[in-house]
Amino acid sequence: MNVVEAKGARIPLLGLGTWELRGRACSRLVEQALRLGYRHIDTAQLYENEREVGDGLRASGIARADVFITTKIWPSHFAAPALARAAKERLAELRLTEVDLLLLHWPNPKVPLSETIGALCKVKRDGLARHIGVSNFTVAMIEEANALTTEPLVCNQIEVHAFLDQSKVVAACRKHGMAVVAYSPIARGNAKDDAVLTRIGRAHGKSSVQVALRFLVQQQIAVIPRTSKLDRLEENAAIFDFELSRDEIAEIGKLATRDGRIVNYSYSGSPSWD
Q: Which fold has domain 8-253?
């Protein structure tokens, strides 16, 4: 099975990111992705498309139990009462009784992490989410969150791609048994024209984008590329029928730099990135 396991969660290695997808186009793309074999859909309160994601899930005809649904709560709702309300609103929008994974979308230094993690744990105990986790957390935040939590934190969703060195954060996640889920795994299209990825792809009969995704999933990092095109959905899914060699993995790894970050937004000033 093409999943990464973490503290009881089985997260499909390939998912569909839905940032910027809206309306009927969003629901149709989710439906098409699921019919193509995707079993992991990622959305968020911020995206304002949870209703359409739920519509696409139902239209696909795929059993709810077979699809891993992730959503994220925006930091302005991190105080305990607000987080509980926001979690219930997520389910109402999706029209689901629970999500598979509920994440804190960005750190919020204005609310004590102990309060937020406590509220997140209660949401899980109340049955609104099967699993919980974080997103955009640094090494120090991962350490603090794991020290505070009373429920397993199963993942940290972060920007990861061939051009960004996230080795410290990935190592911290693995130290705590957390999965890593990569958003922007093709660096918002930058992988397409990279000479190294293109050359390696040619050797496997694959595109540079497929190589960029394979580079991550082969390291047991789940990927949630966003696309609005059906042909790209199919291309992104065709990454499980080839394997990169150790030398190819090492060569791609040399593309990463500390300043390769694309997404540098934070709710209250950018964190001190590792």
A: TIM Barrel (3.20.20)
